[in-house]
Amino acid sequence: MDESGITRLVIVGGGTAGWITAAAFARLLGQRLAIELVESEAIGTVGVGEATIPQIIRLNTILGIDEHDFLRHTGGTFKLGIEFVDWGRKGTRYLHTFGETGLALGHVAFHHYWRRSLGQGTHHDPMSLWDYSLHQHAAAAARFGKLERVGNTALAGLAYAYHFDASRYAAYLRAYAEARGVVRTEGIVAAVEREGTSGDITAITLADGRRVAGDFFIDCTGFRALLLGEALGVGYEDWSRWLPCDRALAVPSERLPVLVPYTRAGAREAGWQWRIPLQHRTGNGLVYSSSFLADEAAAEMLLAGLDTPALGDPRPIRFTTGRRQAFWAHNCVGIGLASGFLEPLESTSIHLIQSHVSRLIQLFPGNRRSSAERDEYNRRCAAEFAQIRDFLILHYHQTAREDSEFWRYCRHMAVPDSLTHKLELFAASGRVGRDVDDLFREASWVQVMLGQGLMPRAHDPMADQISPGQLAEFLANLKTIITRAVAGLPAHEDYLARHCAADPASLAA
Ligand SMILES: Cc1cc2nc3c(=O)[nH]c(=O)nc-3n(C[C@H](O)[C@H](O)[C@H](O)COP(=O)(O)OP(=O)(O)OC[C@H]3O[C@@H](n4cnc5c(N)ncnc54)[C@H](O)[C@@H]3O)c2cc1C
Fold first, then answer.
1. Catalytic residues
2. Does this model's pTM top 0.85?
3. 37, 18 Cβ separation under 8 angstroms
4. SS3 of residue 143 by DSSP
5. 180-195 confidence digits (pLDDT tens)
6. 447 C-alpha vs ligand 1 centroid, how far in Å?
């Protein structure tokens, strides 16, 4: 290669990570780089990853993807949040929505006014917060529509993400990337060549002897991490002491009779079960800890918990929650499962792919010898992983459940200081000590902390600035406005049928 520049980019792996990476690089750096993607049909992809968060809309915008076209091709649906069932204690449920709850007044978040309205006692219904959530009402009524703002009020409209068929999504992005010049090579990687002095990767060799040379490599080989982990020897930081689930069983089932616009995550004896509504089927899976539940019992539990008949046998997946000690080493970056894994409780993995790709493009080095960009990239990815990790731990740890060994472990385990601090601050004052660049908004932390049963002892004193009469009127008006707005939305099912009904030909292909 030319010492001063990087002109040949090799992406290894063609799952969701590989094709998002290829699509984004082709779109933003395609004039400068020759991009080749190597994947093996014989090895296949992890084949899950069907629920997302609203940041994916930004990816679609950058790529210029039409939302309705993409949902038609992937059998997709809209998502307003995640319903958590039986987490804080058995019999409870709450929706972690993508929207705000109520309306902030001045500099004071809505939940402080709501907390004030409950008085100073300790036994209050935390679920009454959701009476003021547009998303909650729309989700409960299975309604969805494009709503940027509620009427002429200051209330924000519906923030949303998508559910889609994972294999269709990768195929959709593949078509996009190939149309923009990405060259796909089919083959199994057998060896990785490195330069003697620098240790940089120079080429990969395929099982049939072909050699693919490059200046910069992106490892999207999934849990195997063939380049970053195996060839470069970058170790793995194991977080399973805080997030002990290490296995999943995935199974599709028939389509739900009513397509609800949210993911469901139901807590189980030693983990949790997901339900993702798609237009042509339902995605389901049980995430569990093998230290607390046997595989056979897990399979029975998954099948017994389905809402519609199974369309196959449960497929096992093993993982260790944690991350690579470095995300970028030498001239190689790991993206997707090759970079680490945070379990799918908050649907963050596809977001991490997108966020890593965009960070890498922003920091893409002009010169292979430069290490400043690499250090910055590693620093920011590490912080992002740790922030999401803490948010996930919150769901397991902040619970009153003591009904199984697994839940007793989670409830009493030591958690990172960064999370302890947030829990203590919220319990004392209702304030959220989130980092400025935290992926999860204040409203997310509030909903999950309250939903898990952590009621703050006090509210922000600035919420006392309005009179009791004004407070009561404010809350009553909000309820009326929200109920009216939801009544005006179409059924989710009708919206899909009208704008993005799945294309049967592409789903059958
Ligand atoms: C149980 C579970 C549920 C999940 N749910 C969600 C969710 O709801 N939302 C979300 O955002 N994320 C979810 N994820 C994560 C999501 O599935 C992944 O982030 C996403 O699919 C990206 O995977 P990947 O492309 O990194 O790896 P993979 O899909 O495993 O792809 C690896 C690629 O590398 C290739 N490869 C490997 N070895 C070789 C070799 N030797 N030679 C050539 N090619 C090779 C394979 O052929 C394949 O193309 C979930 C993950 C799990 C485990």
1. 79
2. yes
3. yes
4. strand
5. 999 999 999 999 999 9
6. 30
